[in-house]
């Protein structure tokens, strides 16, 4: 699923922006000072619910476009400013002062949110009865302490509870085997409706497509930079691309079928169950022009995502980008009830809204959906990649499968230059094979190359991603080079590169975790702002990645790995780094004080910082509170903690 766009773009909209997750609107409210309060749920209850839903099957989708925007309060044109946060499973409005707001579905009023339960009894954000309209009229005369407050942990728990973690229904998500020469058929269905859901106002939605079909031909199948095919050719180095699916409507075999259904637009937003019957009707209507049986290449009776990809471009707007309606939220998933056509079962699909709204030279402008949302959704449906925009250390802008789908260069619309796939996604897609460094390998200098055609010592070298393993086969680090060039120019949406063009990005991977639980964690020195050039490693920043830095090279369970990455050069197409290990366990060391012996032991650490500088120390492991020292502190036996530990025979 595509994430919400999260930058500082301001878009003035005359739309009914909705927070679409409460489902528990209150018909009665008594204004700002007499609001009813819902039952507040504890984190334990929320965590329990998150665990209970962990086996459900979600759609994958784009996250919401980031940035404060004007949210209309009523037909008079009054607005308030807030950012839409979340995805198709869970989203809400956050005002500039941190107040969380939701739409009361029964009254169409925006209200301050509180924790409660929805109609099904599940924990949810619900309207509190405190009207945003009243707050706006009162200005700053209301003490924020009197308003319901919901902290980030509670919001994350609700998001986790609402987000299922099953993979895309397509078969390519698990493998890392390099691919060669894949040309995947892509069928695009431009879906229109008879009229706009009963709306009769001037300039109202008519149900018709308003974008030129030539735009979709070039954006989807063209070879120029900024097209879907060019993006995947760059990411795979020519190993993967889409071809026009065979069809006979209009211009035969251009891959596009235009279908107009005799229904009103469902305005489904993120309600995919509401949308899917219309998609099935569209598939049936397209069947006279498409022989679906011809795409069942393995003869198993099903048309799978590695045989044909189906993309619906639905007339109207993209929910993740704006509040204009009618809209759908871009997503990729399987039909709840698959359809059989030409004797073959079809299930998987991707869908996006036709139009987005972006500010161009200060003017809110309606335009066709930008390419970022498309490459993100096809990353799900064609490649099987998961969303990476959630987790304790989110990937942020560093991958198109996270917030990077909204990347852009300065002044261009969001999503027009989607950021490159991050290291893990490129490996999982089979687009690159990693260079592997095994635990305990000798210290070495490594060249980390961003783009093909770079030269090292006069020789052309290929792009490189280093996989640095740990003693746990499920856990490893990935090292890649990110520079302000190619599709990574889309990082300009978040990063002012200035005199520093980029640097080395480091990821910690734990394959035993789900994507939303931190399977892929970007090692940012400032986790609250992961999309920052300061989080890259280069000589200019002077940062290193060792057991004693923050972030440290501990694995995802907090266990010592001994890995050190040091001696980075200046930012450029080829980055150099010094890799060394110091994993010397010393289990014979015991505490000389009984209470310390109960709670843990220490590990001997030898770290090579280069230039013949060696560090020898001991670090605590075990229960932190009982040990009385933070696990990242070095305990030097004869100085820092005399009498706490004894070395015994270990050296």
- Structural domain tally: 4
Q: Report the radius of gyration as a whole number of Å.
A: 27 Å
Largest sheet: 10 strands, mixed
Q: What structural category characterises the helix and strand content? A: alpha+beta
The dominant shape is globular
Q: How widely separated are the two ends?
A: 52 Å
Total beta-strand segments: 32
Query: On the 0-100 scale, what is the average pLDDT?
Result: 78
Oligomeric state of this protein: single chain
User: Could you list the spans in which at least 5 consecutive residues all have pLDDT below 50?
Assistant: 7-57, 164-176, 583-651
- Please tally the helical runs, counting DSSP H or I stretches of 4 or more residues: 10
* Helicity level: 10-25%
Strand content: 25-35%
Structural account:
Helix content is 14%, strand content 29%. By secondary structure, it is α+β, with helices and mostly antiparallel strands. The protein has four domains: 120 residues, no CATH class; 175 residues, no CATH class; 161 residues, no CATH class; 57 residues. The strands form seven sheets. Strands 1, 8, 9, 10, 11, 12, 13, 14, 15 and 16 form a ten-stranded mixed beta sheet that branches. A six-stranded antiparallel beta sheet has the order 2-3-4-5-6-7. It has a five-stranded mixed beta sheet with strand order 17-21-22-23-24, with no helix packed on it. A hairpin with a 4-residue loop joins β5 and β6. α1 runs parallel beside α3. The radius of gyration is 27 Å and the shape is globular. It starts with 42 loop residues before the first helix and ends in a 5-residue tail after the last strand.
